[in-house]
Amino acid sequence: MDDTIVSTQYWHKMEDGRLQCDLCPRHCHLKQGQRGLCYVRQHLDDEVKLVSYGRSSGFCVDPIEKKPLNHFYPGSAVLSFGTAGCNLACKFCQNWDMSKSREMDTLADSASPEKLAQVCEQMSCRSIAYTYNDPVIFLEYAVDVAQACREHNIKSVAVTAGYIDPEPRIEFFKSMDATNVDLKAFSERFYHKICGGHLAPVLETLEYIKHETDTWLEVTTLLIPGENDSEQELQEMTAWVVEHLGPEVPLHFTAFHPDWKMMDIKSTPALTLTKARKIALDNGVHYAYTGNVHDTGGSSTWCHHCGELLIERDWYQLGRWGLDEYGSCAKCGTTVPGYFEATAGNFGAHRIPVQISQ
Q1: What b/e string do you get for 170-190 counting C-beta neighbours within 10 Å, with b at 16 or more?
Q2: Any alpha helices (H) in 223-285, and if so which ranges?
Q3: Which of 95, 119, 130, 310 is most buried, taking the most CB atoms under 10 A from its CB?
Q4: Lowest mean pLDDT among 88-102, 112-126, 221-235, 271-285
C-alpha cells in the first residue's frame, strides 16, 4: 500500500454518489478518482484521501521573521516546508510553482513526522513551519508532524490563508503553537475575483484563533496597487482588527511584486506600506510592520506605551534588544504580547536548504 495516501475524515457522501469534501468552504463535489481544486485530496475507494502524506516540495531552515512572525521567539531558526496544491486560486501567488503544481514529481523529498522532529533538533530549530502552500490542505500530515515535534519541545507554525471549515479548524489549530494568517484583502470583491474564495470564512477563522485557541496569531496583508491598498479599505480592515481581534495582534503589510497571472501590475511602492502602517497605528493597532522592503523603522518593534525601540530589525538581522527577561519594555515595564526568551536569538538572515531522505 502507498503510505503517501491516507484516509481523511472531513467529507460526506451525497445522494448522487459523489463525495463532498468538508475540509474548506469550497466543498468540492468529487466523483470516483476526481481531485479537489487543492489537488491533494481525492475520491478513492469511496472515501476522500490525502494523496501527498509525508511528501514535500523541499525543506529549508529560515529565520522565524521570514514567516513573518515578529513576536514568536525572535531570532530563532525554523524548519520550513510545503507540499503541492492549494485551496485558493490567487492570481498573484508568489509560490505558484508549488501551490499551483499539478505534478506530484514536485514532491521530490519525503519525511515521516518523527524524522522531521529529529531534523529540527539536529538543526537547532526552535520551531517547524508549514508554509509555501497552505497547510490546511495537508491537515493530517501537519497534525501528525506537530504531535511528533511537541514530544521534542519543537513548536509548530502554520502560514495559512485561514480558508478552512469550522470542524477541521478545531483539530488543525489545536496542533499549532503560532500562525500567521494571510488576510488577502478586506473586500468580498477581491476574494471572489482574484482568489476564487470568500472573505467571511477567513474573518471567522481569525476570530476563532484569537478567542478560542492558545495559538499565537499574527496577520499579514500583501498590498497590491489598485486592488486592496485604498485608504478606505485599510481604514476598515485595521478598525476591524482592533475591534474583533484586539490591538495587540501584530499586523504585517508586505510588498507585492509581479508574479504568475498578475505580471502587468507594478510592485508596491514603499510609501504605500508606510501609509498602511500609519493607518493601523492611528486606528489603535499596537504593533504594525512593513515587509518585503528595506525599512528598519517599519520592521522593528517599538513600545506602544513609551515609544522605546524594543527589537531592531534590519531585514532578518536583529540589532538592539530592549526587552527585559520577562518580555516587557526594559524602560517602562509595559508587557509585550508574544513569546520571547530572555535574550534574542542569533540565527540571523541565513537560509539553509536541507535534504531529507527516508
Answers
A1: eebbebbbbbbbbbbbbbeeb
A2: 231-244, 270-282
A3: 130
A4: 88-102
Residue type, 77: A
d(CA 76, CA 331): 24
In this predicted structure, the answer to whether residue 342 has a pLDDT above a threshold of 70 is yes
Domain boundaries, the chain: 6-50, 55-354
- Phi, psi dihedral angles at 315 (to 5 degrees): 55, -120
Put residue 321 in one of left, alpha, beta given phi > 0 → left and psi -120 to 50 → alpha: beta
What is the grid cell recorded at 285?
493597532
User: Which is nearest to 135 in space by CA: 71, 186, 65, 84?
Assistant: 84
104 or 86, which is more confident? 86
CA nearest 128: which of 204, 72, 205? 72
- pLDDT tens digit sequence for 323-335: 999 999 999 999 9
Q: How many CB atoms lie within 10 A of CB 15?
A: 5
The pLDDT tens digits for 198-208 are 999 999 999 99
Residue 300 one-letter amino acid: S
